[in-house]
């Protein structure tokens, strides 16, 4: 999978490394800003109140 | 000779032709296995990142937001003093109503806002209950229970060190013109998350039977999970007026 991505990136090894880094940063950004905030309330780690539910 | 040569040529050709075919067959399985392995590694990394997000990044965001909102409240208080308008800040429920100081738990002052939804608490503040049992605000002067909730981990983790609070420790609630000094008299280190009785006007589990001015702090426990709730009860000792320099009461000095 990662090998396939690597082979399909343009340029020489340095260009590919830079593009890979940019892709990793983009994925982390999307996870931290959209995916994790969405997933967090669905997981039982951060309920602090007492309630009837 | 020729035949032999042809034979060997055929043999070598066949020998060199067969292994790639076998490698291609193995290759499909190997590719499937390696993609599966890479997916597992990716899943592990994503889970690791989620831990980083929960325990670090949410704190960064929440501390920033809490500082902004706290500054706003302090600004409004200072501004009202300038204008000398009679309307006290604590009745504006959109902003924070005051600050909570628990010296044994944290050196910071914790902004208190209305409501305990995660949208409010995720800003790194403490919220007073409106549901299922409505909190009685100390500013109302009525007897009742001032019940609060805040995060133990992540999102500011304002109540992270709640286990350090012991009987006799002070809890001070600061409003624009009063210091409400409470003293901790009861701790319930573990209770069900459905135990809403801890929020009652007279929290019987704490040993009280008469109405009084109580404060209740709730958060989740054990640390890093939400299986149970940790409760700390305090009772109002005295109310001090805020002076011009906002000199804190002796408990905070």
From TrEMBL, chain A:
<keyword id="KW-0812">Transmembrane</keyword>
<keyword id="KW-0472">Membrane</keyword>
<keyword id="KW-1133">Transmembrane helix</keyword>
<protein>
    <recommendedName>
        <fullName>DUF4175 domain-containing protein</fullName>
    </recommendedName>
</protein>
<feature type="transmembrane region" description="Helical">
    <location>
        <begin position="12"/>
        <end position="36"/>
    </location>
</feature>
Automatic annotation (TrEMBL), chain B:
<feature type="active site" description="Acyl-thioester intermediate">
    <location>
        <position position="220"/>
    </location>
</feature>
<keyword id="KW-0472">Membrane</keyword>
<dbReference type="InterPro" id="IPR042003">
    <property type="entry name" value="Sortase_E"/>
</dbReference>
<dbReference type="InterPro" id="IPR023365">
    <property type="entry name" value="Sortase_dom-sf"/>
</dbReference>
<feature type="transmembrane region" description="Helical">
    <location>
        <begin position="29"/>
        <end position="56"/>
    </location>
</feature>
<dbReference type="InterPro" id="IPR005754">
    <property type="entry name" value="Sortase"/>
</dbReference>
<keyword id="KW-0378">Hydrolase</keyword>
<keyword id="KW-1133">Transmembrane helix</keyword>
<dbReference type="InterPro" id="IPR053465">
    <property type="entry name" value="Sortase_Class_E"/>
</dbReference>
<feature type="region of interest" description="Disordered">
    <location>
        <begin position="1"/>
        <end position="23"/>
    </location>
</feature>
<dbReference type="Pfam" id="PF04203">
    <property type="entry name" value="Sortase"/>
</dbReference>
<feature type="active site" description="Proton donor/acceptor">
    <location>
        <position position="151"/>
    </location>
</feature>
<dbReference type="GO" id="GO:0016787">
    <property type="term" value="F:hydrolase activity"/>
</dbReference>
<protein>
    <submittedName>
        <fullName>Membrane protein</fullName>
    </submittedName>
</protein>
<keyword id="KW-0812">Transmembrane</keyword>
